[in-house]
């Protein structure tokens, strides 16, 4: 269990989280939540991630969570159906359900493999998945040393 004290993360048992604590970034844990899937993978997403990397000290952690997958992946299609069903069960009006899914699938999200490639190209290292919620994946990555 982590504890926030004076904007510092206390030591965790595992090595990667000790790395987070030792980096003492400012802010304490940089994050990009539900944003990157709106940025097109036409060079803009690479620039976006590079800009984040340039603002971090070497070794600083980054948590990034966004819509991630490919419509050709059966597991992704199943997650989208589950997401739609969840909205339906929670009283989303029928006329909005299809539009919600269509709009989400039109976003410029990328596959998990592409997410790893983009983060590595931007100068992040040791990227690994730390979260999954249906179609949304979260990653922990560390800022590498600038070239």
Keywords:
147 residues; Rossmann fold; 4-stranded mixed β-sheet; two-stranded antiparallel sheet; 39% helix; elongated
Characterise the protein shown here.
The structure is a single chain. The protein is α+β, with helices and mostly antiparallel strands. β1 (4-5) and β2 (8-9) form a beta hairpin. The chain contains 5 helices and 6 strands. α3 packs antiparallel against α4 (94-105). The longest helix is centred in the middle third of the chain and has 16 residues, at 74-89. The strands form 2 sheets. A 4-stranded mixed beta sheet has the order 3-4-6-5. Strands 1-2 form a two-stranded antiparallel sheet. The chain has a single domain (4-143), classed as 3-Layer(aba) Sandwich (Rossmann fold).
Largest sheet, in brief, is:
4 strands, mixed
* Uncertain stretches: 1-16
Q: Topology as H/E string?
A: EEHEHEHHHEE
Query: CATH topology, which one?
Result: Rossmann fold
> How would you describe the shape?
elongated
The structure class reads alpha+beta
Strand order of the largest sheet: 3-4-6-5
Explain the layout of strands and helices:
Blueprint: E1 4-5, E2 8-9, H1 15-23, E3 31-33, H2 44-54, E4 61-67, H3 74-89, H4 94-105, H5 112-121, E5 124-133, E6 136-143
Parallel strand pairs: 3-4
Antiparallel strand pairs: 1-2, 4-6, 5-6
Helix pairs in contact: 3-4
């Amino acid at each position: 269990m982590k504890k926030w004290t004076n904007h510092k993360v206390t030591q965790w048992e595992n090595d990667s989280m000790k790395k987070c604590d030792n980096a003492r970034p400012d802010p304490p844990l940089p994050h990009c939540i539900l944003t990157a899937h709106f940025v097109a993978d036409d060079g803009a997403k690479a620039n976006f991630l590079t800009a984040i990397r340039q603002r971090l000290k070497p070794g600083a952690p980054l948590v990034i969570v966004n819509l991630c997958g490919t419509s050709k992946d059966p597991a992704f299609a199943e997650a989208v159906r589950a997401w739609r069903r969840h909205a339906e069960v929670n009283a989303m009006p029928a006329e909005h359900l299809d539009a919600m899914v269509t709009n989400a699938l039109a976003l410029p999200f990328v596959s998990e493999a592409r997410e790893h490639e983009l983060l590595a190209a931007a100068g992040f290292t040791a990227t690994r998945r730390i979260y999954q919620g249906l179609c949304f994946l979260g990653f922990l990555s560390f800022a590498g040393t600038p070239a």
